[in-house]
Amino acid sequence: MFGLFGSSLMTIVFIYLVINIVLSDESIRPQTVKLAFTSNPSEMVISWFTEKENGDSLVHFSETHSTLLSWTKLQHKSGVNVTTSSAQPQNFTSDTWYGLSHTVLLSNLSPLTTYFYVVGGTSQVAYSQIFKFTTQAFDINTTATEPMKKVTPFHIAVYGDMGNGDGYNETVAHLKENMDRYNMVLHVGDISYCDYDKVEQGNQTVWNDFLKELEPITSKVPYMTTPGNHDVFYSLTAYQQTFGMPATSDEPWYSFNYNGVHFISISSESDLSPFTKQYQWIKADLEQYRRYNPNGWIIAYSHRPYYCSTQWDWCRKQTLRALIEATVGSLFQKYNVDIFLAGHTHAYERTYPVYQQLNIGNYDYPGGTVHMVIGTPGNQEGLDKDFIYPTPDWSASRFSTYGYAQLQVQNETHILWQFLGNQDRKILDQQWIVKGYFD
Ligand SMILES: *[C@@H]1O[C@H](CO)[C@@H](O)[C@H](O)[C@H]1NC(C)=O
Ligand SMILES: *[C@@H]1O[C@H](CO)[C@@H](O)[C@H](O)[C@H]1NC(C)=O
Ligand SMILES: *[C@@H]1O[C@H](CO)[C@@H](O)[C@H](O)[C@H]1NC(C)=O
Ligand SMILES: *[C@@H]1O[C@H](CO)[C@@H](O)[C@H](O)[C@H]1NC(C)=O
Ligand SMILES: *[C@@H]1O[C@H](CO)[C@@H](O)[C@H](O)[C@H]1NC(C)=O
Ligand SMILES: *[C@@H]1O[C@H](CO)[C@@H](O)[C@H](O)[C@H]1NC(C)=O
Fold first, then answer.
1. How far is Cα 317 from Cα 10, in angstroms, rounded to an integer?
2. Which residues form the Purple acid phosphatase N-terminal domain (predicted)?
3. Where are the beta strands (DSSP E) in 123-165?
4. How many angstroms does the Cα of residue 69 sit away from the middle of ligand 1?
């Protein structure tokens, strides 16, 4: 009796000590936990922030919640089925930034499997809460070299230009209500607007507060980003270090495959002219994927659109947009890129299938890329309220109201696109898109 009582008392004291360490040292507590895909479907990147250094960056994960829970409580002793991955933390390199980023790669994961995970450091016990994620469908024998051609249905949330201005808190609440639906989130640039108060190096307080608010989203599904003009403070280093995209701050473009669909992220903040590194990379990536899978969906995204019709400089002035269409647009046409997602103008717009300003085919038989702009979640600069009239022929739907979009890949031939307004949680625009073959 006494022995039993004694040992459980010891356990209580021990747990108390562990909790106490966690609570008493806020500076080593992991904050803003985020997931990201790599180009290999059997991998996942997990990243977070701490104010102070705490040894190596560690991720402990398991297929069962109880195994991981007892393992963290008993400080690593009992778990056979807990795997640990580690990396070196990194300081932020700008003088005005503090703290460390942690970016850990998990590999050899199994397909369609849920993993529970905690993150923390070695020198003291300071774990995050337990989070979980689910991997995609893939063949363990081929993985990255031969991605799935078969589509496994999935659902993603899409927006750009979020920041934390008017409307933002409602969009975040709206997203959180719907998070059970989503397998990933695409944030197409202009993330926190932390350069907004003319802080050239970016205001880290704004950046961190923004990411804290999004943690219930970013810790649950991969949060895939592309650089926007408000993310380029100190040379995209903070951006790349924070989000752990499968790219570098010098070459911030990448592609990955998810459940049978090819995604390609283009940096509109980097040079896109022919013969530049990025252009050659886009061409090679699309060519290679199309050779492998001539009929599969390709979804591209970047911050700046080249079809948009608000009364705003970027949309009114043709020159730069025409240049993007002449370079990237011709690759999209040649390699049959089905959908292009962007932000930059603070409105919502959907086009018909279009190429060189001409509608080609329709949603049942697309002969060109369908373009979407979703700059509406709410940021410090407000909405772009005025549209160009007459409405261009290629513009199918446009709104200036707060909300975000969702894209549901149903199967090899059908995608459902929807724009969700925050007010009354209404679906304001909806379109089925059938797979087109346009070269
Ligand atoms: C480890 O996991 C496998 C597969 O989930 C299970 O069969 C096995 O019993 C587990 N082992 C322990 C010690 O929990
Ligand atoms: C971060 O910077 C501090 C202060 O310069 C230094 O002591 C520490 O070793 C650095 N940590 C890493 C992981 O580079
Ligand atoms: C992968 O290869 C192994 C060994 O060759 C084989 O047993 C297994 O069935 C293969 N798995 C799939 C999903 O094809
Ligand atoms: C968002 O902010 C507005 C204005 O401050 C407020 O009226 C509204 O209740 C907030 N919504 C949420 C979900 O916090
Ligand atoms: C950074 O943002 C915080 C929070 O909004 C603000 O209190 C602070 O003054 C800003 N710093 C600078 C240098 O603008
Ligand atoms: C694909 O999804 C669409 C929309 O739900 C459906 O009409 C169509 O029959 C499906 N195609 C296949 C091959 O299942």
1. 71
2. 30-135
3. 131-134, 154-159
4. 15
Amino acid occupying residue 421: G
Distances (CA, A) of 309 to 162, 342, 346, 390, 400: 20, 13, 11, 10, 11
Q: Which atom of ligand 1 is nearest to the CA of 67?
A: 14
For the CA of 138, the nearest ligand: 3
Instruction: Tell me the CATH number for domain 21-134.
Output: 2.60.40.380
Predicted confidence (pLDDT) per residue in 277-325, tens digit: 999 999 999 999 999 999 999 999 999 999 999 999 999 988 889 999 9
- Smallest-distance ligand from the CA of 168: 4
In this structure, the residues whose C-beta lies within 6 A of any atom of ligand 5 are: 197, 199, 203, 205-206
Residues 346-386 have pLDDT tens digits of 999 999 999 999 999 999 999 999 999 999 999 999 999 99
**Which of 409, 414, 416 has the most ligand 6 atoms within 8 A of CB, as the residue to mutate?**
414
* Structural contact between residues 90 and 100, judged by C-beta atoms closer than 8 angstroms: yes
Give tens-digit pLDDT for 259-277.
999 999 999 999 999 999 9
| CATH number assigned to the domain covering 147-434 | 3.60.21.10
Domain boundaries, the chain: 21-134, 147-434
Q: Provide mean pLDDT across the span 85-97.
A: 93
Indicate the pLDDT class of residue 124, thresholds 50, 70 and 90: confident
Distance 168 CA to ligand 4 centre (A): 9
Query: Any residues with Cβ below 6 Å from ligand 4, and which?
Result: 169-170, 173
pLDDT at 144: 65
- How many Å lie between the centroid of ligand 2 and the Cα of residue 82? 29
Note whether 124 and 144 are within 8 A (CB). Answer: no
Ligand 2 midpoint to CA 92 (Å): 9
